[in-house]
Design goal:
With 168 residues, this protein is α+β, with helices and mostly antiparallel strands. The chain has 6 helices and 6 strands. The longest helix has 24 residues.
């Protein structure tokens, strides 16, 4: 059996309208990307990309999107992403664009990049803070951007769950 290699494209949805992020759906985003591929590359590009194209992850709160496609056609996908100009959701059009952040071979590498990217964004925010309250809240967010802290928290939760179980 042959394994098909995929590429994962990490993007962020950039929009001036804050309602755009709240109304994003993965189906609407997938259709917008497919339309852009069809406009730029025609039927050939659409056929190549749509074989295994899916929206693997969508966080409407942060505007983070993870797209999957075949390794052979990821360049077609990446070249068509700048041509996504709006997303249509609930019979309304929201002007926006997709900013490509990273292209990786696994979801895990994209997650690691996203953690580093968010940490860099928080450091930029920290430099632009005007008062001490903002500075402390950004520092707290910055310290929470690590995988080891999440693992230790999940271990604490498992211990708490064991204490609440009664055995006969």
């Amino acid at each position: 059996m042959v394994r098909f290699k995929n590429r994962y494209v990490l993007c962020e949805v950039v929009s001036e309208d804050p309602r755009c992020r709240q109304c994003i759906e993965d189906r609407a985003l997938g259709l917008a990307v497919r339309d852009a591929i069809a406009r730029v590359h025609g039927d050939y590009g659409l056929a190549c990309c749509s074989i295994s194209f899916t929206v693997k992850y969508l966080n409407a709160y942060t505007g983070t999107v993870l797209l999957r496609c075949r390794k052979d056609s990821y360049r077609l996908l990446c070249s068509a992403l700048p041509f996504v100009r709006s997303l249509e959701s609930r019979a309304q059009r929201y002007p926006c664009f997709l900013n490509t952040l990273h292209v990786g071979g696994t979801i895990r590498t994209c997650q690691k990049f996203l953690i580093q990217y968010n940490r860099a964004q928080l450091l930029r925010l920290l430099q632009n803070c005007t008062n001490e309250e903002e500075r402390q809240s950004v520092q707290k967010s910055l310290l929470s951007c690590s995988l080891t802290e999440e693992q230790s928290q999940s271990g604490d939760e498992e211990e708490d769950d064991d204490e609440g179980i009664e055995t006969d």
